[in-house]
Amino acid sequence: MTVPLDLFPDTVRITVGNTLSIGGCDLVDLAERFGTPLYIYDAATIVARAGTYREALRASYPGTATVCYAAKAYVAPWLLKIVAGESLGLDVVSAGELHVAAASGFPMARTYFHGNNKSEDDLAYALEQKIGRIVIDNQDEIARLGLLAAARKITQPVLLRLAPGVEVHTHAHLTTGAPDTKFGLDIASGAALEGVRAILAHPSLELRGFHAHIGSQIRDMRPYRESVERIFAFAAQARDTFGFVMRELSPGGGYAVRYVPSDTDAKGADMVREVAAAVVAGAKKHGFELPEITIEPGRSIVAPAGVALYRVGSVKRGERTYVAVDGGMADNIRPTAYAAEYTAALANRPSDKSDITEVAIAGKYCETGDILIQKVSLPLPRPGDLVAIPVSGAYQLSMASNYNMALRPAVVVVGDGAARLVRRRETYDQLLAMEGAG
């Protein structure tokens, strides 16, 4: 079995003692110091990924452009400090994510507020924070936001989210731009044009342009090109109908990452260049000056930077060999929700080639579906071994739960041989902190 080092963070190494290290920190030592399950983030990988997107967009798009980190993938104060330092913007989808950004001192002018059902309180909070853009999803939100902005005697810049009707080849739960979607206003039905009419009728709302996000884990450029073309065609219709000229465009994000060795490599920089070229072509074809654009990578920045580290508790031989670890669906629901695939290595003996066995990595929770990895070949694990699962930085901690009254895991950030605890492991007392007297 070959250790899939290319799926681990950029700084991964196999030490002379045959252990895995990341950011100069030995994973065996980290497990002893901080316990397991443990999430380990490599700061250098985040900086490198953010820089790749920023520089690719700068080099390929002749107009004004911003890379916005999509906070829903994973958000925390330590991470936002890195994101802000790399001159990225931020895409938030809830008042909670916005609060983390505000508390972290993230520049509100570079923050965009998405979401398909923002409440009056959500929108009021965004206005109080002087957020850069609110991305309007529906007609009810137009009226709600218009009244709130008027009451505060401010004019709020907005984008309108479009449903461009583009099909993508990804998991059904990750598709957001198809004809049947809960997100945005549909172009084909005429709902989007009515949305433009309603926004323009509100003097407290300043329509700047349009947004469309078509899905996640996308490797094919065709749907991006199709989406950009449909946005421009719609923008031309809005210009002809209302005299409104689009100045900003966000073609979303959703760039794929590799989770297992068999996944094809989707290079983020190449995707960005293709998207930029599609925008340039669309502007020329439909007679627009180059709009200001924003792209929204999240998973593809943070997922490759994270590793989930578990300790083996038992090994059970039967029809399959089940290796049970001390985490599972409470800290990583993706295999259960999306049939997501992962690979793994033994952090305490990665180069061991003896007794290679195909095993299932099972979680500890009371569900048959709590299987982190259905099949992976490893040196036969033993109780006490450490299982390291790469590409664990996105949509794991952000979707984590207390199922079975589990304690959500600790998080450390590593770099230059030092590990910093950025999130303490929950305690049993904290599980009861929000409960009543009984």
Describe this structure in words.
The protein has twelve helices and 21 strands. Mean pLDDT is 94; it is low at 170-178. The chain is an alpha/beta fold and 438 residues long. The protein has two domains: 5-42 and 303-431, Lyase, Ornithine Decarboxylase, Chain A, domain 1 (Beta Barrel), CATH 2.40.37.10; 114-297, Alanine racemase (TIM Barrel), CATH 3.20.20.10. The chain is globular, with a radius of gyration of 23 Å. The chain starts with 12 loop residues before the first strand and ends in a 7-residue tail after the last helix. The chain has helices spanning 27-34, 43-60, 77-85, 95-103, 120-128, 139-151, 191-200, 222-242, 268-286, 299-302, 334-338, 428-431, and strands at residues 13-14, 20-22, 25-26, 38-42, 65-70, 89-92, 111-113, 133-136, 156-163, 185-186, 205-211, 248-253, 292-296, 306-317, 321-325, 345-346, 356-362, 371-379, 386-390, 410-415, 418-423.
Please tell me what the overall shape is: globular
Rg calc:
23 Å
Q: How much strand?
A: 15-25%
CATH topology of the largest domain: TIM Barrel
Major beta-sheet overview: 9 strands, mixed
Query: Separation of termini?
Result: 53 Å
The CATH architecture of the largest domain would be Alpha-Beta Barrel
Q: What are the low-pLDDT stretches, counting only 5+ consecutive residues below 50?
A: 170-178
What average pLDDT do the residues reach? 94
Which structural traits does this protein have?
eight-stranded parallel β-barrel; TIM Barrel; single chain; alpha/beta; Lyase, Ornithine Decarboxylase, Chain A, domain 1; 438 residues; 2 domains; nine-stranded mixed sheet; 12 helices; globular
